[in-house]
């Protein structure tokens, strides 16, 4: 009988070693776990308990591998994908929302180490909450009480409709199975208040892959690990539109700051999406030559990160 993807994943977990090893072996091992986990997640039924269990197992093991590899190097993992530029982005958006109401409800999908949640918690007039498939409650400290340890879709079920003023997910969208994306976005849209905003930050597909694939299999054009589907800016806009959301604010990242266009946000977002779509279609099948791709050089004008801010 042919081995199922879930069985292959379980066998892969049994072979994991956290002993010290050369860096290339750490990368190969993480890639094996992520690849096997990704295939098992995709094979499981959408929104099923089985899929949720596989997802938790996979992320717990990948986190253990990352931490063990970092300890061997004498490093620590402070924040997965978060940074000052995104704190700056949220600060501007919260100031904007405060012109409409005195108290803001902020929700983060994928809180990770709590870097963003902790920063936003310091802002005045903001109530914070969030979720993640795996939580380190000791690391989160007092913030753990406002976090839900569930898959995103399950966590959304615990939120009241129209209760979230600012929904933020950074490096999360690409981790969701494609067959769950549309319904998840529809649920997020339901949770937004009338003036609420959905802020999506995701690595640009045109510049990828961005997961462990880029180290373990650098000639691949698409992610094969836990980035189950990477998205271009235009694809994020299209996904949001299908969920009944539209671009509201245009964001440009420059180093550690973000510049927001409130007045022409929708027009600029749609123009950017149209231009990126034409460029990506033109060069998406260009092969990798010597570890580099002409596609990446052409797509770099659109940035490494897609930042899309939508509302109702």
Could you characterize the architecture of this molecule?
By secondary structure, the chain is of the alpha/beta class. It has 2 domains: about 5-75; about 85-310, 3-Layer(aba) Sandwich (Rossmann fold), CATH 3.40.50.150. About 45% of the residues lie in helices and about 20% in strands. It contains 12 helices and 10 strands. It has helices at about 5-15, 25-45, 50-75, 85-100, 115-120, 135-140, 150-155, 180-190, 215, 235-240, 265-285, 295-300, and strands at about 105-110, 125-130, 145-150, 165-170, 190-205, 245-255, 255-260, 290, 290-295, 305-310. The protein has an 8-stranded mixed sheet, with helices on both faces. It has a two-stranded antiparallel sheet with strand order 8-9. A hairpin with a 2-residue loop joins strand 8 (about 290) and strand 9 (about 290-295). The longest helix is centred in the first third of the chain and has 25 residues, at about 50-75. It is globular, with a radius of gyration of 19 Å.
Topology summary:
Blueprint: H1 5-14, H2 23-43, H3 49-73, H4 84-98, E1 104-109, H5 115-121, E2 126-132, H6 137-140, E3 147-149, H7 152-156, E4 164-170, H8 178-191, E5 192-203, H9 213-216, H10 233-242, E6 246-254, E7 257-261, H11 265-283, E8 288-289, E9 292-293, H12 294-299, E10 305-311
Parallel strand pairs: 1-2, 1-4, 2-3, 4-5
Antiparallel strand pairs: 5-10, 6-7, 6-10, 8-9
